[in-house]
Amino acid sequence: MTILPITLCAAAAAAAVNIWLSIRCGMVRTAKKISIGDGGDMDLIARMRAQANFVENTPIVLVLIAAVELARTGNPYLMGVAAVFMLGRVGHGIGMDGGPLGFLRGVGTLTTMLTQLGLGVWAVSIALDM
């Protein structure tokens, strides 16, 4: 049986970030008494999009992490890539609130794109035995 510790840790971190993003949506829902939908509230819309964006991007990153880990077990850089991705996603979530930390949205977006690009290139280089 192959155990993928980096993938498992990345998936656990993703679950924690998703729960955190969910709680942030719930906090706005509770404060503004919005049970269904977004009520046209821009704060709630921003938080919902932060979570949706996380859900849109994280599966492909986890698949790429698992594929690279299967091919190159024990690579210390892979855990770093996973950690940077998760930190970027937290930054994106915080940045979606705007204000003085709004720049983190762009940082998180760039981190996500670079992570996907890097993992994709890494996966192709493994496949082509480079």
Q: Unreliable segments (pLDDT under 50, ≥5 consecutive)?
A: none
Q: What is the tally of helical segments?
A: 4
**What is the alpha-carbon Rg in Å?**
17 Å
Number of strands: 0
Protein name: MAPEG family protein
Organism: Novosphingobium jiangmenense
Keywords: Membrane, Transmembrane, Transmembrane helix
Subcellular location: Membrane
Describe the structure.
Helices cover 79% and strands 0% of the residues. The protein has four helices and no strands. It has helices at 5-32, 42-71, 76-95, 103-127. The mean pLDDT is 96.
Provide tags for this entry.
mainly alpha; 4 helices; 130 residues; single chain
Give the gist of this structure.
The protein is an all-alpha fold and 130 residues long. It has helices at 5-32, 42-71, 76-95, 103-127. Helix content is 79%, strand content 0%.
List the helices and strands and how they pair.
Layout: H1 5-32, H2 42-71, H3 76-95, H4 103-127
Helix pairs in contact: 1-2, 1-3, 2-3, 2-4, 3-4
